[in-house]
Amino acid sequence: KKKEKHRPLQETVVAPAALHDLVLEKAAAKGDAAAQLSLGEAYYKGQGVAQDFEKAVGWYYKAAEQGHADAQCRLGIAYYKGEGVAQDYEKSVEWFEKAAAKGQAEAQCGLGNAYFIGKGVAQDYEKSVGWFEKAAAKGQVDAQYGLGNAYYIGKGVAQDFEKAVGWYEKAAEQ
């Protein structure tokens, strides 16, 4: 009798990362919004898969349509940057608004930026500051920096160098 050759253990066991990816893909395909967002992030960052902004946006869209605030924010970012979709500031603002209404801090900051520079909406410094304040209260670093800028140059608020420095310091502490 010939001895049977056994394959080494590493060839027979599915690697944990590969198993995670397989489970994630199945859950996303079945409509799990959190899995769809995670798969979108994997494609956006090129983690475990080839980077593909269009596939990322496709998964973000599926989760966003189910009301997932983080996915809605990611779509806002994609439209703002033109990654995986044609750049469209108005669509960016639409998605930021949906996520911001649910309290998503990054989307609130995105709206603050949109109103501050007037991309996708009419420039409105007061609205900008309002959105920055909501996001900054949640610790969103870019919003804290945005408030520092608003106070430094006196747009949307009275110019106040002390408050500007305070917001810059909060941002820098993170």
- Annotation, overall tally of beta strands: 0
- Indicate the proportion of strand residues: under 5%
Query: Which class best fits the helix and strand makeup?
Result: mainly alpha
What is the CA–CA distance across the termini?
67 Å
Portion of residues within helices:
55-70%
Number of helices: 10
Name the average pLDDT: 90
N-to-C SSE string, H for helix and E for strand: HHHHHHHHHH
Main beta-sheet strand count, sense and barrel state: none
Say what oligomer this is. single chain
Envelope shape: elongated
Low-pLDDT stretches are 6-16
What is the radius of gyration?
A: 21 Å
What order do the helices and strands come in, and which of them pair?
Elements: H1 9-12, H2 16-29, H3 33-45, H4 53-65, H5 69-81, H6 89-101, H7 105-117, H8 125-137, H9 141-153, H10 161-172
Helix pairs in contact: 2-3, 3-4, 4-5, 5-6, 6-7, 7-8, 8-9, 9-10
Provide an overview of this structure.
The chain has helices at residues 9-12, 16-29, 33-45, 53-65, 69-81, 89-101, 105-117, 125-137, 141-153, 161-172. It is mainly alpha-helical and 174 residues long. It is elongated.
